[in-house]
Amino acid sequence: MKYSFVRFIMVGVVNTVVGLSVMYLLLHALGQSYWIATFFGNSIGACVSFLLNRNFTFKSKDSVSKSAVRFIVVILGCYFISYEIGRSFVEWILKKNEFFSPIVKTDISVLIGTCLYTLLNYFGQKLFVFSKKETAKVSADSK
């Protein structure tokens, strides 16, 4: 696990490009709301993230079903916390600012939410979803 954060960031670049592409496509090309765009963008990015982080970043041997349930809990928690903080922060900071359009404010909210999401998600996955402690326990129980 020496370089798990580096691998996590590499995987994150891939799933972020996928997720943000979907978010901005939904926001700007299809006219969807902030919450719909971020939810579906994150959901698609999360599928990419789960597969790559399970096999490449953390090299987990836990059962797919057990780690998938934990992954979903972490992803949803990180999603709601991060994007609400991002939205609220931009709304608070730029409340009286007429220089930025609502579209730009939404885009900034998405970027801030994405940064927070990345940090919270790493620790959630490392400590709860794909923890070595759980993998060691599963290995010991199966012997």
Q: Any overview of this molecule?
A:
- The protein has helices at residues 4-29, 34-57, 64-93, 102-129, 132-141.
- The chain has 143 residues and is mostly helical.
- The longest helix is centred in the middle third of the chain and has 30 residues, at 64-93.
Q: What share of residues are in beta strands? A: under 5%
Average pLDDT, all residues: 87
Give the low-pLDDT segments.
138-143
User: Tell me about the biggest sheet?
Assistant: none
Helix count, DSSP H or I runs of 4 or more residues: 5
Please give the share of residues in helix.
Answer: over 70%
What's the shape? elongated
CA-based gyration radius: 17 Å
Distance between the termini: 23 Å
Structural class: mainly alpha
The ordered string of helix (H) and strand (E) elements is HHHHH
Per DSSP E runs of 2 or more residues, the count of β-strands stands at 0
